[in-house]
Specification:
Blueprint lengths: L6 E5 L6 H13 L3 E6 L6 E3 L5 E3 L2 E2 L11 E4 L4 H5 L3 H12 L4 E4 L4 H5 L13 E2 L6 H6 L3 E2 L4 E4 L2 E4 L4
């Protein structure tokens, strides 16, 4: 198993895109990773996806222990990132993962978080990076200083961004 001993956090909030949360979670676990569903509310909060699929958080963001507690981060899309980016602790986790050069993957609307999370100089963490996202947030990603990549997946060092699953 390629990812045995690796802990990967997946951020969750209402209404996440079902496939963008559950499919990466299952695939990462198949490779041996320990996954944590990290939400803003109490542990075991039941979040519902856009299509009604439930996901119970395993960890509250305030109890995670920061970027030191994980090896990588996944930010699923749906409308959830619009709520996630209003949470200072979630934004700080994203910024800390970037500062520590840990892999960060953002799917569809997930790159909204990369526009709102700031480095120690208060710049968006996506500034100067290559990225893609759902077309509806392209302007936000570009205005945050990213170099837009018109591709299904864009990899820039430890940053991995993608468009919708289709």
């Amino acid at each position: 198993m390629k990812l045995e001993g690796v802990t990967i956090a997946l951020l969750v909030d209402h209404p996440f895109e079902d496939l963008e949360l559950m499919y990466p979670k299952l695939r990462l676990e198949e490779e041996g990773a320990k996954t944590l569903l990290v939400g803003a509310h109490d542990t075991r909060t039941l979040y519902k996806g856009k299509h009604g699929y439930p996901a119970a958080s395993t960890t509250k963001i305030d109890e995670l222990g920061g970027a030191e507690a994980i090896d990588a981060l996944v930010i699923p899309g749906g409308f959830a990132p619009d709520y996630m980016r209003r949470n200072c602790a979630m934004l700080q986790l994203v910024a800390d993962c970037f500062a520590a050069d840990k892999p960060v993957a953002a799917i569809c609307h997930g790159p909204w978080m990369l526009c709102s999370a700031r480095d120690d100089k208060l710049r968006p963490v996506v500034e100067g990076r290559k990225a893609t996202a759902f077309v509806a947030i392209k302007d936000a990603v570009v205005n945050a200083g990213a170099q837009w990549g018109d591709a299904p997946v864009v990899v820039d060092g430890p940053l991995i961004t993608s468009r919708p699953p289709a």
